[in-house]
Amino acid sequence: MKKKIYKLLIVLSSAILLIVLTFFTDSFDELGHIFRNAKIYWLAAGLGCMVMYWILDAAVLHRITVTMEKGHRWKDSVRVTMIGQFFHTITPFAGGGEPIQAYVMVKDGVKPGVAASIFVVKSFIHQTIIVVYGIVAYIFYGGIFASRIPEFNYFFISGLALNTAFMVFVILLLYKGHLAKRILMFFTRLISKIKFIKNASKLERRVESEIESFRGGALIIKKDRRLLVGLTVLQALQFTFLFLITYFIHLAVESFRVSPVEVIASQSMVVLLSLIVPTPGGTGGVEGLSYMFYGMFFTKGFIIPVILIYRLLSYYPSVIVGGLFALFAPEKPLEHASGNVAGPVSEERESSRLGSGSRYRLQYVRKQRFIKVRRCQGDRT
Length: 381
Prior knowledge:
Layout: H1 2-23, H2 27-37, H3 40-68, H4 74-90, H5 97-107, H6 112-148, H7 152-175, H8 177-193, H9 200-223, H10 225-253, H11 260-274, H12 285-294, H13 303-313, H14 315-328, H15 333-337, H16 344-354, H17 358-380
């Protein structure tokens, strides 16, 4: 409960800070000027780009899923996608989406190993596009960004290293599976020895299980190159729509014109670097990064209002629309995320607590409870 409150406070504080900066500084006058003179159809185009981002995300998920799970429905892929969008926006490093999405798919009948493999493939392609986009942007515009943004090169190297680490691990699983496992287990035991975690053996079992899931997804990447190419194109197009939102905001509020390619390059950097910010949805970090890059494309007084507009077109629609999908989903992902889901998941938790031979021990424990209840009822009569 404390973690949920903490995440909510971060999101709310970010929104409040933006509002305060907008309404209690000179930016308030600029915001009024923007709304009086903005070309609404360009803002609508920006919102349309966000919708296309969702649709293409669902298309990538659906294409991977039907490859491994025949008969999976498009509408289920859309629902899982939007639930993921919600949890991506409220969790640190945007890392809470995939586990909840996998949970929803398992509840819908997809095998746990298959669900895990689906998101390994999707995450690998996702990270690859972010890294490639960032490298290409750096090659062509790195000098310009470095001349206008202090310490830009250090930010870029940090973001690139974090994103590349995951890709290297998946590649190791493809060709050196045992080596990848040994490396990960080494770091797991190292963390255990310096007392960062309480239950070391539980973490090691979980890591081994995750490695098997990652390996299943990695083998799919290795075998079906044609599928990989098609998914890469879709994912690249998806990010292009996301990056174009800023360009359409520029068309809506500014009288001068800038290169759409340069705007796309700058936004690819914002996404690459925002992943090093360990707050829900990159909250705070995205605003700070956007402020640095937006100075290249917007009038100085417009920057803070434009950041607010960008969040209104991208971040908050994901929270609202994705939250509605999560709220009304029959799999109850919100309850699962808070640890209150009943039924099969609770049974799994109790089995885990009982240890080895858990299924039979769980049946025995329940039988003893039943006998005890019957005895109590007999005593009362």
